[in-house]
Amino acid sequence: xxxxxxxxxxxxxxxxxxxxxxxxxxxxxxxxxxxxxxxxxxxxxxxxxxxxxxxxxxxxxxxxxxxxxxxxxxxxxxxxxxxxxxxxxxxxxxxxxxxxxxxxxxxxxxxxxxxxxxxxxxxxxxxxxxxxxxxxxxxxxxxxxxxxxxxxxxxxxxxxxxxxxxxxxxxxxxxxxxxxxxxxxxxxxxxxxxxxxxxxxxxxxxxxxxxxxxxxxxxxxxxxxxxxxxxxxx
Length: 234
Description:
The chain has 234 residues and is α/β, with parallel strands linked by helices.
């Protein structure tokens, strides 16, 4: 099975404008997510998926300048995520995609590999599924989100900004598996939606070694106490 990681990206964030390309220790956030996914063992390729909206022209130029970075632009609105995902799956000849958003620069490649292994029947599940994630239900910190979707499953989803919501709302129509953490840490926020979130991520990257895992972040010594630590740790 050919599995392609897809980073769905756009520049039109209302809460933190242009956040996709805001720097984290000298590298745009999108590139940080790309770096994390390159550590995955189960992905055959990684593609950035965006739309033809002029607001995304700068994003496309950044991708062009990055050696070996693949991107696709779909003739769709930013809100039509389904079309972009289908386009990437078709052009990359993927049997399945792993959907990642660019506001998750703390993504753990081991979680991605675990989701793919279970989805393809090489993990504990032993049977392939249409959809597998660590967000349905959520037990990991928000910001480690990972969704495996087969190409055939994608074709059944509506054109939407949140296409997999249809799967959550119609679970009997699909073969579904879930990856859960032993402890429910879903209350923790590690995603980037606001300026304070970005400052937290920048702090984390300054503390963590290359190739860090999510448990390394949990173990960090948090001194002195900053306002942006609230809601980040148990």
